[in-house]
Amino acid sequence: MDTPEKARTVSLARGRIGVDRGVVTAVVTSEANPESGAGFFNREFISAGEAERYVRRQRRLARSRKGSTRCRRLRAAMTAVMRRVRRRRADFQSRTARTLVHGNGLVVLEDLNIKGMTASAKGTAEQPGRMVAQKAGLNRAIRNKGWYGLEDALRNAVRSTGTRIRKVNPAYTSQTCPKCGHVDADSRKNQAEFACTRCAHTEHADVVGAKNTLAAGHGGYRTWSPPGVGRGCEASTRPPDGRCATATATG
Fold this sequence. Notes:
The radius of gyration is 22 Å and the shape is globular. A six-stranded mixed sheet has the order 4-3-2-5-6-9, sandwiched between helices. A two-stranded parallel sheet has the order 1-10. Strands 7-8 form a two-stranded antiparallel sheet. It contains six helices and ten strands, in the order ββββααβαααβββαββ. 36% of the residues lie in helices and 15% in strands. The longest helix has 33 residues, at 69-101. By secondary structure, the chain is of the alpha/beta class.
């Protein structure tokens, strides 16, 4: 008689990592080193030449007669460029996800409302939006970095490792000093520079965001685990004999 396979117990003591997603650098981890570049994951999915040719064809398309052979040829060429971009982005997301889950029992992400963040700012005729061009540029940057695609890739990658994914409230993660805990918007000097206004601690701003995301992940937020994986075992709740405590990670 076949006996059901016993569900694995995932030890979160194996490794924990926080992830910050950005529009300049796609992914930065809580263990990133700005000097060596380790923990910074980024890639351009379209070359300067491809982008220039795409825009040139786009302009030609606008001047072409709808339904003409020239119109169809230009559309096909533009579609081919975007197909290559999507493939490169998917490859980057898959490779990055595998790197993040390797050796880690817990990956913590910010719980971002990506659909809301990329909504148009045009507004209506009665209530027109503000800074529409700037918002459109931000929307393109977020979509280009593939924030949601990375999350999907992580969920696929953890099916073979048993790693848990935890999403936390992103509030103040970029404004909190990871050393003294002081919260101040002025500590975030610019996109890359963080200097605490209380203790003068300095660090790469994206690394600060990733560290605070990881710290928030220790607070018992909802954890996603792949199907068929057993209980999670938090390092801080493990008894001296090494067995999992009864009330551990939520899953």
